[in-house]
Write a structure and sequence with these properties.
Elements: E1 4-8, H1 12-22, E2 27-31, H2 34-43, E3 48-52, H3 60-69, E4 76-81, H4 85-93, E5 98-102, H5 106-136, H6 147-160, E6 166-169, H7 176-185, E7 194-198, H8 204-212, E8 213-214, E9 226-227, H9 229-232, E10 237-241, H10 251-260, E11 262-263, E12 272-273, E13 277-282, H11 286-291, H12 297-303, E14 306-309, H13 319-334, E15 341-342, H14 344-352, H15 358-372, E16 377-378, H16 412-416, H17 423-446, H18 451-458, H19 462-471
Parallel strand pairs: 1-2, 1-3, 3-4, 4-5, 6-13, 6-14, 7-10, 10-13, 15-16
Antiparallel strand pairs: 8-9, 11-12
Bound molecules: adenosine-5'-triphosphate and magnesium ion (MG).
Magnesium ion (MG) binds near residues 176, 177 and 241.
């Protein structure tokens, strides 16, 4: 479709001129009065409006206001006689894109018109992408049939519309980030940026400049002023991911920002007001971190105005089949293929596996199956070898309800290691650590020691993998 320009001018030779110059490339519609012009913009999609200031009846400035009121978001260029430049400048304050004086310099006219159309293309592209993001991260795209999750979402939906701080807790891969995005895109801030900050990824001094920005000359190397994430998110949402990793000295600084809604750029002399909503996530038990003195209580209370916990996948097994189906369909669509299906025996294996990497791990496995599976149906033997591990294979279906958590084969005596009275919580922790260690070792073997592939496969960051390797003394 050709782009459309509406020229509102009572001098017919102006419209004629536009047709002469632009008629080949664009569709040019003329209107002799503001009223006719507004009607034309209302009736069809218009990419640029050229507006004369002096018109019979409604004048240009009034027409500009009406254009905005009737929802036109494209550029408006004011055409003005030499003596009226002041009014044209005023029009720009009311949202006109630019102005040009009559009589026209043809080259200048071409330049301004083409620039405005480029701007119009970009803004409609931004609007389209925004709509797409909004659609993509809508709560409805978070797949679940679990009553616990559905209840959680009804709460999230309500909290999205307010500005309260939300703290999302959950194991790695449970979906904390997509929930954070869904909160943002369901809020009134959805047209403003969603800015994620990974608090674990940067050392303390870099994190500070990343969050608060710096002025030129704040330190050697700071040649230009750089805005921080809190500034970049203006009007939107800052997502403090892995907030449990926030270095202690940074914590009072974040608290201050949240309390005062102002930031100090490094090396800056005045405080800058900010308008952001903060959503934070962690896979740690933050209250426990507070108890251990690793996280400030005041910041915890400030962040956890509204705490939510996403249950791990093994506690909502009913989600495994629907998520598996969803991912198989998604990957098949990408490859323009028919989605794989999963036979009963393979599904039993998926259901009894403990999924330490949660939904991310399930997603990765489904992606592998799409690439590696020979037939249209996934059978048990198509699953990675560790699914056949008798430790959590289907015999746990015979166990009483609640015992089928993928932990069989672990002997409590062995876990106690001579200490007695450890209690279930500690025993569980130790048992879990064993399973985790085993999974990591298996994966490392599978990828011949390649850490990147192993981390990717397990659905954790390389940093997490390294921490785990250290924790379990794996070389
Ligand atoms: N309920 C769900 N429906 C659809 N996709 C999901 C769901 N939960 C998680 N996912 C997908 O699983 C992957 C992991 O989710 P996400 O990154 O949100 O997890 P996370 O909790 O932030 O993990 P981490 O703690 O490792 O950062 C993403 O690709 C996400 O889109
Ligand atoms: Mg995450």
């Amino acid at each position: 479709m050709r782009e459309r320009i509406v020229v509102i001018d009572d001098e017919s030779n102006i419209v004629w001129l536009f047709r002469e110059i632009f008629g080949d490339a664009y569709e040019v519609l003329g209107a002799e009065t503001a009223e006719d012009g507004l009607q034309a913009v209302w009736d069809q999609e218009v990419h640029l409006v050229m507006l004369d200031l002096r018109l019979p009846g409604m004048n240009g400035l009034q027409a500009l206001e009406k254009l905005k009121l009737q929802g036109y978001q494209g550029p408006v260029i004011i055409m003005t006689a030499y003596g009226e430049v002041k009014t044209a400048v005023q029009a720009m304050k009311f949202g006109a894109y630019d102005y040009i004086t009559k009589p026209f310099d043809i080259e200048e006219l071409k330049h301004v018109v083409q620039g405005a159309l480029r701007y119009s293309r970009l803004t409609s592209e931004v609007t389209r992408l925004r709509r797409e993001l909004e659609e993509k991260f809508h709560l409805k795209n978070i797949i679940t049939v679990s009553p616990k999750m559905i209840e959680l979402f009804s709460v999230i939906e309500r909290v999205s519309t307010s500005d309260v701080c939300v703290l999302i807790q959950g194991e790695s891969g449970t979906g904390k980030e997509i929930v954070a995005k869904a909160i943002h895109y369901a809020s009134a801030r959805k047209d403003k940026p969603f800015v994620p900050v990974n608090c674990a990824a940067l050392p303390e001094h870099l994190l500070e400049s990343e969050l608060f920005g710096y002025e030129a000359g704040a330190f050697s190397g700071a040649r230009k002023t750089k805005p921080g994430k809190f500034e970049l998110a203006r009007g939107g949402t800052v997502f403090l991911d892995e907030v449990g990793e926030l270095p202690l000295p940074m914590q009072p600084k974040i608290l201050r920002v949240l309390e005062e809604n102002q930031i100090d750029r490094l090396g800056g002399t005045k405080r800058l007001p900010i308008d952001v909503r903060v959503v934070a996530a962690t896979n740690k038990d933050l209250r426990e971190e507070v108890r251990k003195g690793r996280f400030r209580q005041d910041l915890y209370f400030r962040l956890a105005v509204f705490p939510i916990t996403i249950p791990p996948l093994r506690e909502r097994k009913e989600d495994i089949p629907v998520l598996a189906k969803h991912f198989l369909k998604e990957f098949a669509e990408e490859r323009k293929a028919t989605p794989l299906t999963i036979d009963d025996e393979a599904m039993d294996s998926l259901l009894s596996y403990p999924w330490p990497g949660n939904v991310r791990e399930l997603k990765n496995i489904m992606q592998q199956l799409c690439l590696l599976c020979d037939g249209p149906v996934v059978r048990k033997q198509d699953l990675p070898a560790f699914f056949s591990n008798s430790q959590w294979s289907s015999h746990d279906n015979n166990l009483p309800e609640g015992c089928a958590e993928g932990m069989p084969g672990i002997n409590p005596e062995e876990l106690l290691e001579g200490e007695s009275g450890l209690g279930l919580t500690e025993l569980k922790k130790r048992a879990w650590a064993r399973v985790e260690k085993q999974l990591i070792c298996d994966a490392l073997k599978r990828f011949e020691g390649n850490r990147t592939l192993t981390a990717e496969y397990l659905g954790v960051s390389r940093r997490t993998l390294y921490t785990k390797l250290r924790e379990y003394g794996i070389e």
